[in-house]
Amino acid sequence: PEDIPGKNGVTLIDSEQPFLVYREIQHLAEPIALIAHADRELLEKALYQIEVDVDELPAVFTMDAALERNDIFKSYLIEGDNVSDNWLDADVIIEETYGTGAQEHLYIEPQAVIATAIPGESVTIWGSMQCPFYVQKAVAPLFNLPRERIRVVQTETGGGFGGKEEYPNLIAGHAALLAWKSGRPVKMIYGRREDMWATTKRHPSRTHIKAGFKRDGTLVALDIDLVLDGGAYPTLSSVVLSRATLHAWGPYRCNCTRIRSRVVKTNSVPHGAFRGFGAPQAIFAIEMHMNRAAEALGMDPAEIRRRNFLRKGDRMPTGQVVKDELDLGCLMDRALELSNYRHKRSQYEQANRDRGQKRKGIGLSVFFHGSGFTGGGEVHLASEISLRLTEQGGVEVLAANVEYGQGTNTVFAQIVAEACKISPDLVRIHQPDTATVPDSGPTVASRTTMIVGKLIERAALELRHRLNKPEDFRSAASQYLRQHGTLVVSVRYEPPPDIYWDETTYRGDAYAAYSWSCDVAEVEVDLTDYGARVTNFVSTVECGRVLNPALAAAQIEGGIAQGIGFALYEDVVLERGAMKNNQFTNYIIPTTADTPDIHVEFVEFPYNNPGPYAAKGIGEMPIDGPAPAIASAVAHALGGRFINEVPLLPERIMRNIELGSDPLLDQSFGADPELRK
Amino acid sequence: MMQVSFVVNGKNQTLSAAPMKRLLDVLREDLNLTGTKEGCGEGECGACAVIMDGLLVLSCMVPLCQIQGKSITTIEGLGDDANLHPLQHAFQENGGAQCGMCTPGMILAALYYLNNPDEAEDLREALAGNQCRCTGYTRIFKSVEAVGRNEFRSR
Do A405 and B99 count as a contact with CB atoms less than 8 A apart? Predict the structure, then answer.
């Protein structure tokens, strides 16, 4: 602690997580000391000379134990208009528990930063990251410096998926501390094992759902209790929980809904941001529950959904009214058609009756994802961007949003080009650098195109207006620069009109816009080794106006592959709260051999969306749907067995078949009318 | 320390280093060829794949003491910005790369497959040792297939 010039806490929402732990170690991967040397081999030798004496304290590694201790970081309660009465109208009440495991981002490039420091004066950090201004905010108090003395430059970033949202704050601080003390530049690149051992994962979840249905499949009452394992520090858990809570009811109408959610503290390595941000966990539960209900009521999974889809004018449990001409039936029908769902469903059932070693199944999921920050989040962020005329008569975009493979730079250039009526070749994107670009917020939450893209559209239109809407933008720009020297247009976020959110009661418009999607997965389960394999995948997606169909589809395909991993292969084995299988060798992600042909089709409803040219967010949604679609397909292949947990590793499928249940989850089976209140 | 001579991208190289130094580090640190990436450091992810004497190898698994007299091709040996290799061009045109970390290894594995089509059942099997976390592979297949169909013989 004596080497820490300022505050020993990583400032994010709070600053509870220390840069270096000094009293009570909260988890196995917690940093205690930092060591640097110019010679990497000597450094490794030195590491083995360090001995740490610790007294072991009792630790908590399960959500149950944490709940018992009432160790809760954050909880929410949302109650719909009519919480208790509707249960009386239910013909059948179905109650189950669902679980999802932790998931590792496994960006191919590990965490990496370089830091330099002038002690007492300033710190500069270059690194692989999604949110340069987060790093600045986190590191400034560590050195007791004003934020502008901390310069953070995002360098080419080899994948993130949320794993480089908050974690770079910590490693940037570490490198900067070493640079501060040594007076030399310090480079820190995590080895893969270290990366998987120490960095955040997707929050494990357990969701209990009780739902009442009429015999015709109408959902009349819904009670959801969702728990996330937050790990040892609060980090972003409260916000992850918020998104999980606000996606828990799925795309269904039900005016009698109660959602209670909690994120608990354990002594696991802190769980954090991961594409989907709580939504995949909640959506897995509600979607599997809809299948359970379909089976109990003797309905097709598609038809029970159709009966309950949200439509224009419906109210969600927060009171948010669906204002758009929403036609989820159309979205689903297109996916069913593309996948030949009906024919295959009966064909596979027929074929599976022969009791062969290879069983086939087909399943679906329908889901939404809120674009941008929840509720008033975007208002708090108050993002700002600037556009500047360049000497070439083009436009430079100054924003903090990073390119990490998803196409930020291309889409920004497209938006400017469209608004200014110039070639995208004339648009330059400035490297995100806190010293030179305004804070347009983090590159997270499917917000870059919709929120920041809109700012760029506004600024670009303003820029063109300032040049008197020239036919020839390039020469008009050059002329303007000759006369005036420079032209910069800056715009700041303004919330769309008629959007209202109450943070204290959790009522109102949780998101300014939602994207919608339907996935259909086909699987083959081999009863010789109980391995499941996805053989075909169809996704129909409604995300408003698609600005770049190739990039958008590419995002979706990648998200689906990650979702296939989440559903079937990716098993984070936590031993005493830290990842035991922290290697590429034994943490299995989908390879080319495991990833089927993925067919993506966009369906566009004519909305007045808040994004540029009526675009909405797309980055995260594709990981929401695959797990329930694949798990339903596996259930279908196994003759309608109940599945309530992912990842569906072969041993889980075996246990499901041989024991008929999964002892990992405390659950009640079947549609029991006795449970009616 | 051990002195070795070898060829990288057609250029003779001689250097001294520890015998167990990884070819990956030799390329990146000694020769400043940072196109070759490290993803896992244990021969699983394929990001560091290079071609050595006509064989596809993982440079994180090849120690310096095994490269005496060998001829190595890295991504830098395929093309440059002004003069892309047909595979590079195809990856660019078909969205075969997103974050780009797996791309050099992926392109070298694809090149090896196109030159040795009998060594794998199909493209899926040929690229199964190269992991990508961004694309879902669909557009990587499209890119390589486009070259297979001779659409990018621009060079």
Answer: yes
